[in-house]
From TrEMBL:
Pathway: Nitrogen metabolism. This is Peroxynitrite isomerase. Its cofactor is heme b. It comes from Nonomuraea aridisoli. It holds the Pfam family THAP4_heme-bd. GO terms for molecular function: heme binding; metal ion binding; peroxynitrite isomerase activity. InterPro entries: Calycin (IPR012674), Nb(III)_bact/plant (IPR022939), Nitrobindin (IPR045165), THAP4-like_heme-bd (IPR014878). Its EC number is 5.99.-.-. Belongs to the nitrobindin family. SUPFAM superfamilies: Lipocalins.
Amino acid sequence: MEEPEVHPDLEPIAFLLGRWEGAGVGGYPTIESFNFGQEIEFTHNGKPFLEYVSRTWLLDDDGNRVKPLATESGYWRPQPERQIEVVLSHPTGIVEIYIGEVVFHKIELRTDVVARTASAREYTAGHRLYGLVNGNLMWAYEMAAGGHPLTDHMSAELKKVA
C-alpha cells in the first residue's frame, strides 16, 4: 500500500514525523535521579493528525536496558493559527489533554485536562517543551504530582532513525 500524502494541516508539525531514539535523564522530589532510553514514533494516515507512541526504559550506568518504564500514546492535532491539541493516554490510568502553540520547530504544551482512574497515582498537571535543535528532537517535561507543584521530571535528546 502506498504511503498517503501528508495532510496540509500537518505542515507546522510535520518535522516530528518519523521514529526517534535517544536517551535522557529523569528525577523528581519523590524519586532518585535516573537515566533512560526512549523511542518515539510519529506517524500519519493522511488525515489532519499525527499518531504518537513513546516507550522508555531504565538504563544502567553502561547504557544497557534494565527494565521498561513509561509508555504513552495519543494524537497530535494541529489547529488554526499554529495552535495544537494533544491527547495522551497512559496504561497507568491517566489521560491528558494538552493545548499549546507551535512556533517554527518549537512546541510548548500545557495540560488543559487530566483525568485519572481510581487506581491511578495523584497527578494534576504537565508542561512539555519539544524542539528541533541541530536535527535532533529535544524535549523536557515538568509535572505536578504527589502534592508537588510543576517540577522538572524528565528530558531527552533523540536522533531521527527512520
